[in-house]
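Quick start: read one record
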Amino acid sequence: MKFTLGWLKRHLDTDASLETICEVLTDIGLELEELEDRAKEFAPFKVAEVLAAAPHPDADKLQILTVKTADHDGLQVVCGAPNARAGMKGIFAPEGTYIPALDVTLKKTKIRGVESNGMMVSEREMGLSNEHEGIIEVLSSYEIGTPMAEVFGLDDPIIDIALTPNRADCAGVRGIARDLAAAGIGTLIEQDESPVACTFDSAIGVSIDDTEGCSLFLGREIRNIKNGASPKWFQDLLKAVGQKPISALVDITNFMTLDQCRPLHVYDADKLKGNIRVGAAKGGEKLDALNDKSYELVEGAVSINDDSGVIGLGGIVGGVSTGCEEDASHVFVEAAYFKPERIARAGRDHGVESDARYRFERGVDPEFTFAGMELATRLILEFCGTDQTEISHVVQAGAMPEWKRVIDFDPAYTKQLIGIDVEADKQVTILESLGFVVEGAKVTPPSWRGDVFGRADLTEEVARIVGFDAIPEISVRAESSVAAPAETPMLSRSRQARIALGARGMSECVTWSFLSQDNAKRFGLNDNAAREALTVVNAISSEIDVMRPSILPNLIDAAQNNAARGYGDVALCEVGPVFAGTKPEDQDIVAAGIRSGHHADRHWADDNAARGVDVYDAKADAFAALEAIGAPAANAQITRDAPDYYHPGRSGTVRLGKNVLAYFGELHPAILEEMDVKAPTVGFEIFLGNVPEARSKGTEKPYLKLAALQPIEKDFAFLVDDVVEASALINAAKAADKVLISDAYVFDIYQGQGVPEGKKSVALSVAIQPQETTLTDHDIDALMQKVIDLVTSKTGGSLRG
């Protein structure tokens, strides 16, 4: 919203400086976006007089001028303007001045061998117009040294504020002045809103068929006026904010929009066909608009019509057919109230941006419709009135929309909500200065504040006028000022799982929480009663009508879609809900993922890169996520009882006793075949709700403690039955001495020549970490024997010779 300081002072009686006004504007929520002080910008350019003009000795089109300025009695200036002559006054730019349109800084120079000091400038060089036929010539009455800004009316600073959508009342200069007056920056000047004298009844009637879109429509006929150019001061105000003056009638409507936030429209009454009717467009009507564009009206738009058809898009733009030209002498003035939602929708549908739409869609003051008509009429009389001018009584259709609302008022709530302790009497004074009516514990907002609905809004009004800098500072070190963490343990685990899986190169998906009946059967939902209970009654598609018992089928479908587009090697993950039944305890949050295709891209230096994904890839993903969320994965057991949709010999269950933490493994070949998946595919599912709470509430890792003594590694080979799990050997070896044995792992399994049928050879490496003293050979031998004895007793195996 742009306006000049002088424009503001038409409504605000103040002695405050420009800097103070701009500072207070921001303080009260009307944030200063830009301040353009053209008087400072054009300060070096001043009126000067040409004392003499002589021909240039070496150039026919150049003259040597002697120029008298405020600082010099006679400067030599070389000039090529045809209108330069002795005795004229123009605008002089001294040496060192920046010329905006030329983008140069003047220097003393020689032109064709003659010294030139500064220049006499043209309007185009000053950015005032495209005129460049000669230098600027000003009236002889101007004193030498008069600033150019004063001559051209550019000495009025332009203020540009950023309006929030709720402050439609400040889309007019008077609303801004009202707020500043309430903040103590001067006094709001009263304006004459009384009815003008009327002499006849309008021959043009109005009616409303669409009262929902337009609840109130006022019209007034004015005869025998003389349209033409508006006064210079009026044009200067409009030019300053980017409006192009057109004619007095058009300029008045533009001025009322910007000055009072009261959009109006003026019709040429001689072009109207019959009466005016306001209705809802049926769709398809044509309108040639005043913005030089043609529109086909969308159904439901508020349309202004006469007997010839559509003559305007209500609250947005008028039509060419009834527009006022320079020779208009008989007009009909419109002031109406349109519903904001209807104007916003029609503006978007038709792609029209206008000053009227900007204000109507935010909500103008309905009560001011009558006063706006009277103010506009006075301006028309002032600028266009003649001795024969006649004004009709106002024609009204519709009624004032209901806008009044009463809000409970509690002065103590300001302290409670904002933290500012403001006396009750002062709060009442502030609200009343803003136009609110305060009656005890009840407050009625003014008609121009359609954004105020509750007591929190009243508190905001008090706070912004008092100043947000009055809110007391509170140290963030105080325990009471630090809010409790909003993240629950489940949210923390979900976030940590996403990060861990993303770090392993997996792409996160967000899929539907439902799937097809066939996939539900394949992935664990085999009970007919349960499946029926989980069927979605109002499914968005018959193909996805069951709440998912597993995330894996959705990820497999996503992998298939990628493969169909040439991306066969994928790693996908998702964290989300799964549903085993209708009860709350049947729902769990699961971190699931799949890998399909090759382990990695083929590479000439890596023979292993082109291998297909296998169970160990899924296991690594699952354990990485488990460790990230704080699960005691190192203490977990791995069993073979994974669900049927996993490969029975290449899958596992991670559990703590009876508590299942995760499943992992290759997916069952039969299921992959049913789903038409040809690439090797593995997956995992981590049940975040089954992960036990960490004993420590902190997130820090334990200190790294490096042993001072060198570790020892000893290898063993045990002959065991081929059904014995490798983890049984590892757990038995570690149990031999939980202090000295730091790790144990299998590094080879062999079946074949030299190993009996039904047996396998398992090679085990045991890491021994001395703690306090160096171990002797006797100590090591005793420990190794203890490992052998414990593995033998726990697994039924024997040490290979």
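Residues 526-532 have pLDDT under 50 and may be disordered.
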